[in-house]
Amino acid sequence: MASIKGESALQKVHAGATASWPFSVSSDGSGVKISFSITTGPDSSAPEWDVMLLDSLNGEVWSNYRASTEVNVDVVGNGDKQLTLQVICPKGARYGDTVEVLVTADDGMSNSMSFKAVATQSIMILKSQIDQEKVVADALASKAALGEKDIYAILSPAGLRGYVFVEGMNTDRLREKVRDIKKARNFIDGETSIEEIGSYLTPVSAVVGIVEGDIVELVNGPFKGEKARVQQIDQAKEEITVELIEAMVPIPVTVKGDSVRVLEKER
Question: Burial, 243: exposed, middle or buried (Cβ in 10 Å; 0-12, 13-18, 19+)?
Fold first, then answer.
């Protein structure tokens, strides 16, 4: 009886990228016939994916470019034949486009396994002219507002100079979108992930880095320009209580953490 063994977990894949599933087939005979049934979704307008069957040396055994939907595979010594199913997500894929490949091994008795992949977005890193990150981000946002469906999200983190994160589906089209943006440079090779940029998505407390005893300058409000010493910090409210250095009578003043600039750290 023919048998198929392997992992067939759902894989997420970016447009133009590849998903692979190693598996093995075995038979009581000297070979098996392997057939393929390919379904794309979620509807009839979904683009076609490239599907290939590779041997243990990554040589092509079968692909969906062939007219036939089946191929004969030798199983030497009645052992396991190591194979890999590979699918390539089309560059024109939309978010959520899928491919499902049903692989059936038959030597008189059949056994099947299904493999499925889904298209997901890419997060790319765009280099920009230093201190022009917001200009580049705003230019991309204008394109997105005009119906550029290739751009899903744009992130220009404060403090990260010379880089803008861009999320979209088709990486080739994303590169085309920035060609006429003067302050944009080029995309860094490869992609990043939401996990790698997670720290930029979490708001930083306004009082981070400020400790009691620091000398600060108030940058807004009625005491703008005055120097003060930090007396107390409220982490929950992101507020600090300071005492004005040049005041005739030391009066505590409570301000927001982003209302001061540290001039001298407590030693």
Answer: middle
